[in-house]
Amino acid sequence: MTALAAEHLTDLKHAIHAPDITHQAAQPAVRAELSQLAHVLVRYHDQIATGFGVPHTHDHGVRDAARRASALITHAEQLLGPRPTTETPETVLAEKIRCVSIALGCGLDLLASHAPSTLTHPISADAPAIAATDTARTLLHRLSDHTATVAHLAKHTGGPSETASRPLLTAAVLSRVFGKNERPPINPVPLHRTPERIPPKVDENLAEAVAGIGASIQRLKNPTTPDSIATWRYLARAAAITCDLNSKTILQLTRRMEELNELQHVARLKQVTQSVRATSGRWKAIIRRWDTYDSFGHPAAGMATDASDLIIRLGRLIHTDPAWTPSPRASHQVRPPDQLAATMSDAARVATVALKALEACNIIAAHHRTAINDLAVIGVLQQQQQRPTFSPRVPASIRRLLGLYEAAETQGAETITVAGRTIEALSSHNSRYTDEARLIIRRSATSGQSALAAAGFPAPIDECLTAPQAVVSPTAPTSKSSNTQKPNVL
Q1: Torsion angle of alpha carbons 242, 243, 249, 253, nearest 10°?
Q2: Predicted confidence band at 243 (pLDDT cuts at 50, 70, 90)?
Q3: How far is CA 474 from CA 238, 279, 405, 490, in A?
Q4: Under the phi-then-psi rule, with left for phi > 0, alpha for psi from -120 to 50, and beta for the rest, what region is 192?
Q5: What is d(CA 324, CA 302) in angstroms, rounded to the nearest whole number?
Q6: Residue 339: which H helix or E strand, with range?
Q7: DSSP string of 267-298?
Q8: Would you place residue 455 in the very low, low, confident or very high pLDDT band (cuts 50, 70, 90)?
Q9: Full-prediction pTM beyond 0.85?
Q10: Tens digits of residue pLDDT in 149-205
Q11: Angstrom distance (rounded) from CA 475 to CA 472
């Protein structure tokens, strides 16, 4: 997250040298966002000063420097005035500042989650590394750049708030001096890393299959090749096949629970099967709508190949044929329940794979904008050729297809929630699958967790994950940077 914040910080540095920076920075919204960013920096320095609440060895002044810098930034925050009260930034510069606040806030909360404040939760294995002096020094050094940028922006705010630049610059110098380290021990993890494709092979074991499925899903989340109308037509069919395969998988897991006499899970799994079938029905309705249009050529290799790999591995996971491929002649014989999941841990693992595949289907539903827009353009051009007019309208068929995608996304989110809750019950003894299921549920709910970072994160991230979540129908967010916003064809 600090790497992402650094990317947004580069935009702020460029803004400082803009010809109209004095006019931009004088806006009340900018002062409010600077105050919020200063507040996030205070929280960072306070955590560094206390070692994130983890017992640590005495250092050589790093934490004392963080404590002194925190006091200076707190004073600057007071000079900048109240923090923002609006959900959406009012100016472009204010939006850039908020992006830095959100990225830094998320990163801080993730770090703090390794050392829960309650005694009932043990610290993680990574907590000592986070509390180490070298880590504190590295974080302090990185934060000095953010503090200095806020100081330079504060100079242009005008009025009493511009005096905040002096304590901010002092804090930045203090952090940089004590944070200096010729060999930083920690490097930021690259964001949005797209893994290499792992082609399916015959006779893969469960671990290899799970790794390949994970790579395909990650590649579908971050496509590396341009999409096309033909690609989205293919992906809709792939999503329907994925749901059908998951339905078979969950059904076999239900039978396995009956064999193991784990009857408390049977009703939940049956509910998941019904919900998955309902999602499959939504995708089949989309396919029928696509079939009314021309073919538009062949799908692009990237996303279509990843979706094909996902289908092949899910099919081989549930079918007995080790070389299974989706075709009219494909074997329909499924694995016996005891071979699919010998233990409860295996059942949770297989169910988690199915949940990830369902999330991939929802990602496809949420990223249909290009296909819808291209279809709308083609439809309008066809209308203009037949009946020229000065005010062309988007064809009603495009609106219906848009509605079908939105319905599939909504149903998919409900299915993910039901399946995720079931996995929580299945893997009550294994926090790995429980935590993964909770994160997927949170992502599918589109509940705007990023706003918590800018607001100071009143609740730790572990509480956010464990709190009961209602089924939320995905809606188009107002942020123009979101990946799930509605197509702009209407």
Answers
A1: 150
A2: very high
A3: 21, 14, 11, 18
A4: left
A5: 22
A6: helix 337-340
A7: HHHHHHHHHHHHHHHHHHHHHHHHTTS---SP
A8: very low
A9: no
A10: 888 888 888 878 888 888 888 888 877 776 555 444 444 444 456 788 899 998 888
A11: 9
